[in-house]
Recover the amino acids of this structure.
């Protein structure tokens, strides 16, 4: 008989900003089963259910991990409903509708040699308190072999498509050409159906049989070049893509320029007439400078913190939402739009921000780039040092917090410091209003750097310079 707490403690798997993450070699069947058993036992303390939902991304390791989770569900005397390869928000949407827990097997944007598990309560994402309870839970279980074969139901995928096509008239996007960069996204078989039903002509681009780790916060230079080429050669009005599990959007305008995720979120919130926002401290200050919102709550980075802030906002406001710098949009309340209502989906979603922004441009008869031109001109850029020990990242930030000015000077900057924010990592605003924000990734051994300036090239140079200096300091 195995003990879930002991198995997890010995697994090298840890919760990050979004789910349990680790190397594929560490996600052994007994580890996946241990997490599933503990999760179910924790959920059973507050909810009554007879079914648990499962879905996966396109990683080579995901199906076997789902099999182990399914075996745990069945061992509990529950039904396991498997929805196959679908976006994480599609699974979350179905879980909310059915009022049942769910497990998504995905590593999101991290490399294919890693994977992860995301957990959903019947009422939405698990909380940080739930994570702790799962880690502390001592569920006794056996891992019975062989693991069950899984047959996918199309229900969650179909309901996810209907969620968004029902918002607009069938000809809303008529005459528009949308390029869908499919790569290995979990939603690549859904998006063309969705956009075609709204009248668009869809051009499929870049489908890959190998897993492609797209990071919407640090778009690779080759993907920037590809997007400009696609937009020009294919005469596109927009390009849509996502990260691996389809909860973070990657959207380009008619010129093939990728939009920053938080700017896309700002435009979506504007289109939905959101009153109050919860957003991570790393988001662009153009959001506050826009003056579009009655209240903005700044949080730590990670959807659990954004969601936790919704409770306070809902006491005072009726239209609430949040989004992250990576573009994932979280709808914190039901929102009326046109002649219908879109129900709350308090987890990161990639489709809503794209459709709201692109439809807004179509309705206003302008290009997507024009929507950006009307915003306060603050530009952000981000990148990261990969394979950078998390302990070293934390030490660098801890040392910098002791003497921020000395740290800034060690990087070669001569400006004074206006403010220092340690909500999540270290965010320094310089005297010229430029921003440098350092933070260890919660999902992988990476040190992330965000920068903001009134000029796009200046923001990019801030990131490039800061990271190059940190590499030297840590050598």
């Amino acid at each position: 008989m195995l003990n879930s707490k002991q198995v997890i403690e010995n697994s090298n798997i840890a919760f990050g900003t979004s789910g349990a993450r680790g190397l594929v070699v560490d996600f052994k069947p007994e580890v996946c089963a241990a997490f599933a058993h503990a999760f179910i036992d924790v959920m059973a303390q507050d909810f009554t259910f007879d079914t648990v939902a499962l879905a996966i991304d396109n990683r080579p390791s995901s199906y076997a991990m789902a099999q182990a989770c399914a075996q745990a569900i069945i061992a509990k005397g529950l039904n396991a409903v498997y929805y196959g390869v679908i976006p994480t928000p599609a699974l979350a949407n179905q879980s909310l509708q059915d009022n049942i827990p769910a497990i998504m097997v995905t590593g999101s944007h991290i490399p294919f040699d890693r994977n992860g598990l995301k957990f959903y309560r019947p009422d939405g994402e698990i909380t940080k308190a739930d994570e702790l309870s799962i880690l502390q839970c001592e569920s006794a279980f056996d891992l019975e072999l062989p693991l069950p074969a899984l047959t996918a139901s199309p229900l969650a995928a179909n309901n996810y498509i209907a969620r968004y096509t029902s918002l607009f008239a069938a000809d809303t996007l008529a005459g528009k050409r949308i390029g869908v960069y499919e790569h290995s996204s979990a939603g690549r078989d859904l998006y063309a159906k969705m956009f075609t039903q709204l009248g668009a002509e869809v051009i499929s681009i870049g489908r890959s049989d190998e897993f492609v780790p797209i990071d919407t916060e640090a778009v690779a230079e080759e993907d920037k070049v590809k997007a400009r080429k696609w937009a020009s050669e294919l005469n596109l009005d927009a390009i849509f893509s996502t990260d691996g599990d389809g909860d973070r959007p990657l959207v380009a305008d008619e010129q093939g320029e990728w939009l920053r995720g938080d700017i896309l979120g700002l435009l979506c919130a504007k289109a939905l007439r959101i009153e109050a926002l919860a957003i991570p401290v790393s988001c662009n200050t153009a959001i506050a400078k826009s003056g579009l919102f009655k209240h903005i709550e700044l949080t730590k980075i990670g959807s659990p913190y954004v969601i936790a802030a919704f409770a306070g906002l809902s006491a005072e406001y009726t239209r609430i939402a949040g989004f992250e710098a990576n573009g994932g949009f979280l709808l914190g309340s039901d929102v009326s739009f046109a002649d219908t209502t879109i129900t709350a989906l308090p987890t990161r979603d990639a489709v809503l921000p794209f459709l709201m922004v692109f439809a807004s441009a179509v309705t206003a008869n302008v290009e997507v780039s024009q929507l950006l031109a009307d915003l306060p001109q603050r530009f952000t850029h981000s990148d990261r040092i990969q394979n950078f020990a998390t302990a070293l990242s934390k030490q660098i930030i801890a040392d910098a917090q002791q003497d921020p000015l000395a740290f800034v000077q060690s990087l070669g900057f001569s400006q004074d410091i206006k403010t220092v924010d340690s909500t999540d990592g270290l965010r320094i605003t310089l005297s010229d209003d430029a921003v440098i924000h350092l933070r260890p990734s919660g999902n992988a051994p990476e040190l992330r750097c965000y920068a903001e300036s009134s000029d796009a090239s200046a923001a990019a140079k801030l990131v490039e310079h800061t990271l190059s200096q940190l590499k030297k300091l840590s050598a």
Q: What stands out?
A: The longest strand covers residues 114-121. The mean pLDDT is 94. The two ends are 47 Å apart (CA to CA). Residues 100 and 122 are 4 Å apart (CA to CA).
